Task: structure prediction
Amino acid sequence: MDGEGRQVIGAREMREQARGFVAHATARNRLPLDFSVASLRVVDFLIDGLRKGGRTRRDIAGTLFGLGAYVGEVLVRRAGAVWVDFDAEQREFFGQAVGVRMPDGRVWNPLGKVVNCLERGGKNGSEASLQTFYLTLPGRVRHAA
Result:
């Protein structure tokens, strides 16, 4: 539990969280969420739709978490990252309990990155696209399985 009484999901659960999000998101829609780099463009469109929908961040918190888990899992499957539990200092800095560690040792916060894209997407091109984020990401393996 975190300081506000919410259950904290750890690194071990993130792969299943991503799979569960895909199952839920594709149950009624034919979204090509296949954990490919190209599918991050679909995530960009979903975030844009959430932004235009005008709902509060609190209203869409579960969807944002699912999208962040999905983006992180793309990094795991395609860039050679691994899910990690953040230490106390990283949790304070990122505002999240989990993230990914790249092969070069850098850590990233895909859950926070999704929120940044939602909040800043229309204002700053670098924050507008998760696909661009992936393609410009330092420390990734080019052909991870």
User: Anything to note?
Assistant: Confidence is low (pLDDT under 50) at residues 1-5.
